[in-house]
Specification:
Order of helices and strands: HHHHH
Structural class: mainly alpha
Strand content: under 5%
Distance between the termini: 88 Å
Number of strands: 0
Length: 177
Amino acid sequence: MEPSPDRVAILLPLGIAVSVTFCTVIIHALVMMPMIYFVHYELRLGRAGFRFWRDVAIVAGATLVALAAHLAAIAIWALVFSLSGEVSPFAAAVYHSGLNYTTLGDSDPIISPSWKLLVPLEAANGMLLFGVSTAMLFAIVQRFIETRFGGTKEPDGFHEDVKDRAKDRETTKGMRA
């Protein structure tokens, strides 16, 4: 008995989606770790957490880096749709992948039944990675707030010299006034 052409495949799209999701998580990790180390370095030197515009620049940079990681993930998913022959040309695949990744949808009419499972799996991947990016940005902002206004508990690895530099700045600011 031959499978019908409208039959929804499960194993192949699931295997591909798990592989692509793994790749996108690795991309996000590779992009976020340097940002985390950079923020830690800036905090340790006392250059972050004290000046508003410097902190805004760091958060904006982290946001752009996270956006670049999301765009790379969308491009990888688009490559999957393009290589599977579901969406072509590549620009259209990027557009539809972006719709799926951001959970807007709209790819249902153009994806064949055998590859339809990729659409919700890409949406799940996008939701998870947007959550990871949001958590990273929240952690950066929280760290800046704790550094500037003092937290209830100092995080591990927080150097006393950051506090001393903040006091020096306040003393210098008071002398100028």
